[in-house]
Design brief:
Length: 262
């Protein structure tokens, strides 16, 4: 492209956008080729997500119709409505939404993020939330983000709280404060993944506490985690936050395990 083309010389911003930016991308691609975060294949014309079309095709966004409370998707068409579990056992949170079904490439991304210290993967995972759930958040006046806390023993062994790392990016995007010390895990619990679904609720009972009630009283809270399986952990967190006076709680996760995978 010639820099004297009339459609470029409209303003300095036009020059920067139409000439320098593509050249910079081409330079960076030469020395740092964009590779898929999942399969590590080269991605021509990669966008900020850095996941190749083949891996994206294996991801299943969780769209309507779904349970209007827990967000579990229903087969077929129709309106949103309550699922049987939410009718029989209403959760403490007001609504829960996940971006993607917990299957395929998303499982690998989250596993590598949490257990192999690839903390740079927080960016594509946060972008998945933004791409699929931004309208859910933007449509309400939320006051703050609270990440699901880890017990100090697990935090020391892992070195980071994955929900906090995701929350830092989402707080910036949604322009919301994040309270990382208000909700605390005060009792050690066995990893939920090691337990059958029927035992997970008892496992986390009494495991959380609010450190400063004034920070959540009357607030509309986004409760953030990476994955929602049975919902026992986020439900216990929500119950504690509601007891402390939280007005409304929306659970937001990257992924949601569907019933046949729990």
């Amino acid at each position: 492209m010639r820099i004297w083309d009339s459609d470029v010389l409209t303003s300095p911003e036009g020059v920067k956008e139409k000439v320098f930016k593509p050249l910079l991308h081409a330079f960076l691609d030469m020395f740092f080729p964009p590779l898929c975060h999942v399969c590590h294949s080269f991605i021509p014309d990669a966008d900020e997500l850095h996941i190749c079309p083949a891996c994206r095709a294996q991801m299943m966004p969780l769209g309507r119709p779904f349970c209007s409370v827990c967000g579990i998707p229903f087969l077929g068409a129709g309106d949103d409505h309550l699922c049987g579990d939410c009718i029989r056992h209403p959760p403490a949170y007001d609504a829960a939404r996940a971006a993607i079904a917990y299957a395929g490439p998303v499982c690998k991304l989250i596993h590598d993020f949490k257990y192999t210290h690839k903390v740079h993967l927080r960016r594509p995972l946060a972008l998945l939330i933004i791409q699929h759930l931004n309208d859910v958040v933007a449509g309400h006046d939320w006051d703050l983000i609270i990440p699901v806390p880890l017990h100090v023993r697990r935090l020391r062994s892992r070195g980071f709280n994955q929900a906090v790392l995701l929350g830092e990016l989402l707080a910036r995007k949604w322009r919301l404060p994040m309270e990382r010390r208000t909700l605390r895990r005060v009792r050690w619990t066995e990893p939920q993944i090691n337990l059958p679904a029927v035992d997970r609720r008892d496992n986390v009972k009494g495991a959380f506490a609010v450190h400063d009630v004034a920070r959540v009283a009357g607030k509309r809270v986004i409760l953030l985690d990476d994955v929602m399986t049975t919902g026992s952990t986020v439900n216990e967190c929500a119950a504690v936050l509601k007891k402390a006076g939280a007005e409304r709680i929306l659970v937001v996760t990257v992924a949601r395990a569907l019933p046949d995978s729990i």
